[in-house]
């Protein structure tokens, strides 16, 4: 099986970690939760209900790209990657990265976020994330998957797309 570098992307609550882990299993690779690469100041800011700005995100995105580039085999990283410019930062370090965009309705996303006890990201930041989100462009290697489907179905279909 070939090596894949994949970002499971989307706003908070879309299932990046769940689908990302399943996708890594499907591809025979590793999963890394991009949230674990956030500096403590970013986590504190989000936990306080303050959206991150581009200056906050840049070192985090560079860390995501570096982790991807350092992977010796298939790597799936869960990372919001909301803007084209953010995805470009990741691709600077790992140009072959593909993006699996997990997309759903605001209502479903809010419901999922509210059901996550102890997560640092409050539902109040969902609208700022949705406002920031930029769709994948035709020249970006990526595909959109509907989160109304089961995580297992999404991971399977994403693996098929990546291996095609």
Automatic annotation (TrEMBL):
EC number: 2.7.1.12
Pathway annotation from the record: Carbohydrate acid metabolism
EC class of the enzyme, as a word: transferase
The keyword Zinc-finger is assigned to this record: no
Keywords: ATP-binding, Kinase, Nucleotide-binding, Transferase
Catalytic activity: D-gluconate + ATP = 6-phospho-D-gluconate + ADP + H(+)
Name by which UniProt lists this protein: Gluconokinase
């Amino acid at each position: 099986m070939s090596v894949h570098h994949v970002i499971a992307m989307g706003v908070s609550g879309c299932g990046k970690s769940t689908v990302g882990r399943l996708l890594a299993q499907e591809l025979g690779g590793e999963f890394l939760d991009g949230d674990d690469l956030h500096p403590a100041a970013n986590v504190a800011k989000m936990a306080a209900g303050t959206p991150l700005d581009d200056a906050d995100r840049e070192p985090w995105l560079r860390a995501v790209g570096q982790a991807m580039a350092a992977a010796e085999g298939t790597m799936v990283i869960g990372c919001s990657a909301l803007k084209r410019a953010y995805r470009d930062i990741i691709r600077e370090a790992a140009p072959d990265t593909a993006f699996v965009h997990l997309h759903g309705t605001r209502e479903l996303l809010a419901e999922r976020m509210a059901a996550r006890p102890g997560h640092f990201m409050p539902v109040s930041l969902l609208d700022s994330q949705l406002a920031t989100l930029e769709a994948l462009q035709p020249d970006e290697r990526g595909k959109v998957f509907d989160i109304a489907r089961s995580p297992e179905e999404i991971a399977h279909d994403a693996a098929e797309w990546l291996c095609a």
